[in-house]
């Protein structure tokens, strides 16, 4: 497993940038290390100018009922946990899935988690 992407992400998380408001609220922003300094400054400036437009927490998302975005699994009292066996995927779909995962990993939407298995 190639951990270089994960290590890059960890280094980015450890060097996160803060946007400070006048009323001492702090917003944490994770910025990719792949950005050049000018891009990073432009991004931070844009975020500072438009911080009211961003939903930093669920409380900031006005008009969205929390029950809509809260996930609950209702189980019956006598229900027992059961682990299902892993199913095989059609080889054609497996190849499509691999390509999609690699594409998401390349653009930084997902990243490998060490010791996840």
UniProtKB/TrEMBL annotation:
The superkingdom listed in its UniProt entry is Eukaryota
Protein's name in the database:
Transposon Ty3-I Gag-Pol polyprotein
Organism annotation:
Cucumis melo var. makuwa
